[in-house]
Write a structure and sequence with these properties.
193 residues, mainly beta, 5-stranded antiparallel β-sheet, 8% helix, globular
């Protein structure tokens, strides 16, 4: 009997220790904008399913659709605003890319922009970024995707906005070698010959 109780205690303890709350999807834009409010002309009436006419190839997209403020040309302005949601996890992560100043992804609490993100590099490869929102747990919030850039090449791409309990880890850089080259490590400051 004692061994059964110990086993039961162990199983209950393990399930408590190892329980992981599922991520909460805020938006993935695969079908439509759903309850998001569209302002201006930049994002169009529905998510993009590929680049607009003058946009280069896009990479890093997950699923069938994404928010693209260049869908009607890169000089249109506008905003996408989520419906209000409760912050339930410690981090909000998202895929983001784009170019130009005047574009951002904003976290609004009580109607004020609390956190802001912008594409970390110019280009069309969506990369993950995240916000640490542990201090806002239980608060009501909104996400705003904003493009106020009227300059050529001004647009923002956003996909897969998710609440999670796991921060992003810095990726290690891997080099793929496709030809038989000899790689020699080089030390900075080594003598020149």
């Amino acid at each position: 009997m004692k061994s059964i109780l110990c086993s039961l205690f162990f199983l209950i303890g393990c399930s408590t220790v190892f329980s992981v709350e599922a991520d909460v999807v805020i938006a993935n834009f695969d079908k439509d904008y759903g309850t998001w409010t569209v302002e201006g002309e930049a994002f169009g009436k529905e998510p993009a399913h590929g680049p607009f006419a003058q946009q280069r190839r896009l990479t890093g997209i997950i699923g069938n659709g994404f928010a693209n403020s260049g869908v009607n040309g890169d000089q249109q302005v506008g905003r996408l605003i989520s419906s209000e949601f409760t912050i339930e996890r410690g981090y909000i992560q998202f895929l983001i890319a784009g170019a130009s100043k005047g574009v951002s992804l904003n976290l609004k609490i009580d109607g004020k922009t609390t956190l802001k993100a912008a594409p970390d590099r110019k280009g069309n490869h969506l990369r993950y970024q995240n916000w640490d929102v542990k201090s806002f747990m239980g608060r009501k919030a909104q996400i705003e995707i904003e493009d106020q850039s009227k300059s050529p090449g001004g647009y923002i791409l956003v996909d897969e906005i998710t609440q999670t309990n796991f921060p992003l880890q810095k990726a290690s850089q891997a080099i793929q070698i496709e030809k038989p080259y000899l790689l020699i490590p080089v030390k900075n400051g080594a003598p020149h010959f």
